[in-house]
Write a structure and sequence with these properties.
The complex is a heterodimer of chains A (307) and B (222). With 307 residues, chain A is of the alpha/beta class. Chain A has helices spanning 6-12, 30-38, 61-70, 86-98, 128-141, 172-182, 195-207, 210-213, 226-234, 243-250, 254-273, 292-298, and strands at residues 17-22, 46-49, 75-80, 103-107, 157-162, 186-191, 215-220, 278-283. In chain A, β5 (157-162), α6 (172-182) and β6 form a beta-alpha-beta unit. The longest helix of chain A is centred in the C-terminal third of the chain and has 20 residues, at 254-273. Chain A is globular, with a radius of gyration of 18 Å. In chain B, the strands form two sheets. In chain B, strands 3-2-4-5 form a four-stranded parallel beta sheet, sandwiched between helices. Chain B contains seven helices and seven strands, in the order βαβααβαβαβββαα. Chain B has helices at residues 9-16, 30-33, 39-55, 73-76, 95-104, 148-151, 178-189; strands spanning 2-6, 21-27, 61-67, 88-91, 110-112, 114-124, 127-132. Chain B folds into two domains: 2-118, 3-Layer(aba) Sandwich (Rossmann fold); 133-203, no CATH class. The chains are: A alpha/beta (307), B alpha/beta (222).
């Protein structure tokens, strides 16, 4: 094992992994964070803690990850390069590891123009791939950017995101290869609604041998209702929701839409499990954490491996 | 060239209302090309100010002048005879022009009439595009002569982010995705292989991050 990460043990043990997402509070509400996290306890192998997602100011992902660690969950610290330069990022990596965090997901982050601080300066000193390389060099070479040696280097299990649905489409798998080459141990994909496009992406990744070099977790986000489906289709960067999926939910009365959204999520999980190279799922139930157990039970993923 | 836009009359007046004699000075270089601070715009702004003051029953002395360049001392001296008769200078130069005037005419307040925006090109009449951030370490040769630092909203160096859809940037659909442009251009040139290599973090010390830059060349000094 490269790290003390539970997620690494699960994946390297050949188990089908389940990760989920927990967005920190907009404020310093620790109880709200813990309450969300309790729905995930024992049900998932690790919990991603988002870093000011969609550029909305929230509790720092390092702090929230440490809180989750403190109550016995396995956090995946999300870090975006939008808000911090290389000094702050590397410093926070030291701090996160010192607080017992063993997984990090390296991202560039949504542009600040999406959030509630539209006038902010975007930092973008590093890009996500440079951050991946930075974390890997810390772990495997014991150095920071520039080559200086450090004492007690953070040993992180390194994650990266992949979006099979963005353009230019033929570039997507090249970018995945670049992330893996830079040091990504696992990949969490953007939410999958277009199964054909995802299958093509995975086939290319498989053919290039990429699924041998990194674990790919398929991104699943249950749609709560037709409104959310339309919002995801039109307002969220890099997400594609096919028209017929929106119609499938929209054709039902409001009170039945949530159940249909869960049914679609379960079907999606069953389909991705059949795809070569998919090592697990990343279930992003946005502000719907309490539905995670129900979805996993329905998908036959109730039990998490002991490692 | 430097691209700039003229400020709103109200914003300009807020800065100059306290003066009763104002020298309005245009610049016939970059800001003339982008139709914000040349001869014509200087004349129009002076006329607009006079009209605006007339509405308030005020009649400050407003004199117009235009320099070939506001950022070079030899040219700046061209208004030396007019400056003493005015309390303040309103410059239609870029930020460099405003500051150069203030350095030369050290005892005069100099206020900007323009918002200086970027280094760019005239893509067509009426359209100016930002395409250089002046980072001090040009890598255009590796990216098909499309600058990732300038044309990508996130300054990404290793390929497009997940928000690139149909050649459009996630920030606004009217922004072309810089990475889409880079990939298409290198594809057409048969040089897509350039993009497979990892690009290390940018050295920003050659950019403004290293503090205000200054070029000194002994061979050029008088």
């Amino acid at each position: 094992m490269k790290t003390e990460s539970r997620l690494e043990k699960v994946l390297k043990g050949g188990h089908f992994a389940v990760t989920a997402e927990c967005g920190p509070s907009k404020g310093a509400d620790v109880e709200a964070l813990k309450k969300k996290a309790e729905f995930l306890r024992g049900r998932v192998d690790a919990v991603n803690v988002t870093d000011n997602q969609t550029a909305i100011v929230r509790m720092s992902s390092v702090a929230a990850s440490a809180i989750l660690k403190g109550i016995g969950l396995e956090p995946v610290l999300q870090m975006v390069t939008r808000d911090r330069n290389r000094i702050a990022l590397q410093s926070d990596l030291f701090g996160a590891y010192a607080l017992g965090i063993n997984n990090v997901l390296c991202l560039t982050g949504d542009h600040q123009s999406f959030g509630n601080q539209k006038q902010a300066a975007g930092v973008f000193d590093l890009d996500s791939i440079q951050l991946i390389r930075t974390v890997r060099d810390m772990r495997d070479k014991g150095t920071i950017i520039g080559g200086e040696e450090i004492q007690v280097p953070p040993r992180m299990f390194i994650g990266a995101a992949a979006n099979p649905f963005a353009d230019p489409v033929n570039w997507r798998v090249v970018r995945l290869a670049k992330k893996i080459e830079a040091g990504a141990d696992f990949i969490q994909t953007q939410c999958i609604y277009n199964m054909e496009r995802f299958k093509n992406f995975m086939q290319q990744a498989y053919d290039m041998g990429l699924t041998e070099q990194a674990f790919v977790l398929a991104g699943i986000t249950p749609l709560k209702n037709a409104g959310m489906a339309r919002y995801m289709a039109t307002k969220v960067a890099g997400i594609e929701v096919p028209e017929k999926l929106i119609d499938r939910i929209a054709s039902l009365p409001k009170e039945k839409q949530a159940d249909e959204g869960i049914k679609i999520a379960v079907e999606t999980i069953e389909q991705v499990r059949q795809i070569k190279g998919v090592a697990g799922i990343h279930l992003m139930a946005i502000e719907w954490e309490h539905k995670v157990p129900e979805i996993l039970d329905a998908a036959g993923l109730s039990q998490r491996p002991e490692v | 060239m430097i691209v700039a836009e003229i400020k709103a009359i109200d914003a300009i007046r807020e800065m100059i209302d306290r003066y009763s004699t104002i020298l309005v000075v245009g610049c016939d270089s970059c800001v003339a090309e982008c139709a914000s601070g040349g001869h014509r715009e200087t004349m129009l702004l002076a006329a607009a100010l006079k009209l605006s003051y007339a509405k308030d029953n005020r009649n400050p002395k407003i004199t117009e002048a235009c320099l070939d360049r506001q950022c070079v001392d030899d040219f700046i001296e061209g208004i030396a005879h007019l400056v003493p008769d005015h309390e303040a200078i309103l410059s239609l130069g870029c930020g460099a022009g405003v500051q150069a005037l203030a350095r030369v005419y050290a005892d005069k307040p100099v206020v900007p009439a323009l918002n200086t925006l970027f280094i760019g090109e005239t893509e067509m009449r009426g359209v100016w595009q930002e395409n250089c951030l002046g980072c001090g370490n040009c890598k255009l040769g590796y990216f098909g002569a499309v600058c990732p630092v300038t044309r990508c909203s996130k300054k990404l160096m290793n390929g497009p982010c997940g928000g690139s859809i149909q050649g459009r940037c996630e920030v606004r659909p009217d922004i072309p995705c810089g990475w889409d442009m880079i990939i298409k251009r290198l594809e057409a040139l048969g040089e897509l292989d350039r993009l497979k290599e990892y690009v290390a973090p940018v050295d920003w010390s050659t950019s403004h991050a290293g503090g205000p830059r200054r070029v000194i060349r002994e061979d050029q000094k008088p």
